[in-house]
Amino acid sequence: MKIISAAKRLMQQTGVKMSIFGPFGIGKTSLLKTLDEPTLCLDFEAGLLAVQDWQGDSISIRTWEDARNIACLIGGANPASKNVYGQKHFDAVKAKYKDYDFSKYACIFIDSITIASKLCLTWCKSQPEAFSERNGKPDTRSAYGLLAGEMSAWLQQFQHIPDKDIIIIGLLEQKTDDFNRTTWVPQVEGSKTTLEIPAILDEVISILC
User: Fold this and answer.
1) Distance CA 11, CA 4 (A)
2) Which end of the chain is more exposed for a tag (fewer CB within 10 A), N or C?
3) On the CB side of 142, how many CA atoms lie within 13 Å of its CA?
4) How many of the other CB atoms lie within 10 Å of CB of 105?
5) Which pLDDT score is estimated for 177?
């Protein structure tokens, strides 16, 4: 812990942390082609068909374990954590993926938090904490509590990367209430995660047309 002067703070390289939400097919993934900085796409969506001619690099993420490992690799060890994202976790994934070099990327593009949260929920439902100690039956409330903590820690891991822009894509869902009023809400598993996104990221943008 140290005091940073205003002059030093102005000299530091800082990246923007933002999320972009929009309905299906509006062109969220295509925003990759508008970026003019070296970008790595974390692909949760089973392929980048919409941007086949994009010339950047990507990593396919299919499990929540992979999602946590890549966040730890890119973000580095979290000194506040003794478990996930801590020094031991970082050392383990660094040894496993020793050929990975993220220094050349100025931007990390995550497509999408909608699917990432689904992978996280599936993982949470399989953990011992998600089952009742009394009868061993699934405990949905505990699973969603675990989901909230996992998603928050994952997003904060990207939040604390100082020298890269982080762009997180998500699906926007249209809902109609009993009074026929229409609203658009982020399609993310767990209401707490949705509420925390504006507090963790610098900007939250919605695209509707």
Assistant:
1) 11
2) N
3) 13
4) 19
5) 85
**pTM of the entire structure?**
0.89
- 169: tokens are 């894509």
Residues in the chain with pLDDT values less than 50: none
| Domains within the chain, CATH numbers bracketed | 6-46+56-206 (3.40.50)
Distance CA(18)–CA(1), nearest Å, equals: 26
- Assess contact for 115 and 170: CB atoms under 8 A: no
Residue 48: predicted pLDDT: 76
CA distance 70 to 26: 27
**How many other CB atoms are there within 10 angstroms of residue 56's CB atom?**
17
Give the length of the chain.
Answer: 209
Q: What dihedral angle (degrees, nearest 10) is formed by the CA atoms of 93, 108, 68, 76? A: 50
Enumerate the H helices of 12-80 as residue ranges.
64-75
